[in-house]
Amino acid sequence: MGESQSSKTDRPATAGFEIRGGGYRAGIAATGAGLRLLERDGPDGPVALTETWDLGTRPPLSAGLILAPWPNRIRDGRFVFDGIDHQLEITEPGFANASHGFVRRRDWRVVHHADDRIELSIDVGLHKGWPYPLRLTVDYALGDDGLTVTHTATNTGAIPAPFGMGFHSYVRAGDVPLDECTVRLSAGTRLPLDERMLPSGGSQAVAGTEYDFTSPRTLSGVALDTPFSALDVDVDGRSRHELRAPDGTGTVLWAAREFGWLQAFVADPDAGKSYPGRGRALALEPMTCPPDAFNSGIDQLVLAPGQQWTGVWGMSALGS
């Protein structure tokens, strides 16, 4: 079944849950299975590691929402898979794209809820141009090492299905303004985009360019809405990306190899995209593939009938 008319609306999230563990606290919304806050206990009270939003309000700029069964955009909502032409609903009419999948504005079911962990699930369902039934789960868990987020996707249909996933996570260094912070991205290449936020060429090396954040750089005056790849993976198989305040505290976002792309976006009032109550804000979004992957084929996943995919990422506090 496709989405009902009511589930298509950009309605506010009203049902929420809390988990605590290892000195961390997270708030999860049923709508979009959204991560609406992550904070760590500090000597003077809780320290925010993400941008936040209140239950009963619309998640600003899709903050903390899951993007599936594709992240980012599909050109003209059209793609060919297994020789079949598909036409999706255009959900970004200004750019004539199909954007961010089907599940970020729908309510997810709670599968399990403990003090330090919650698991939610949803069936993607069938939609215009999308004949592929998938079941998604997300597990948020807190511990001494912070937040670990585990995603699964299972093809519950009878034919192979294309798939991609992303997460629209915003990071924050307490109450320090973004322009006083530095960012470090473990990324060797970036994908140029056109005015429709679609790829305009092949990946380019960032070394020596304005997109080189392999060493910490101040965010003052920086504008970004950029897919990065060639992520530098540590010995534990994780890439790490850091936002730090001047005193060295901040947030690290890490991702396992399944998430080979990172979209970095700076919300900026001067560009007409302000994060409420904060102004400029930084999204670091782990993704399995770049924009328009269903047409380019770059890192597009294909799930056979009954096949399950798993991907893991997380966040933790930096410094004292």
From TrEMBL:
Pfam families: Aldose_epim. It comes from the Bacteria. GO terms for molecular function: aldose 1-epimerase activity; carbohydrate binding. GO terms for biological process: galactose catabolic process via UDP-galactose, Leloir pathway; glucose metabolic process. PANTHER family: ALDOSE 1-EPIMERASE, ALDOSE-1-EPIMERASE. This is Aldose 1-epimerase.
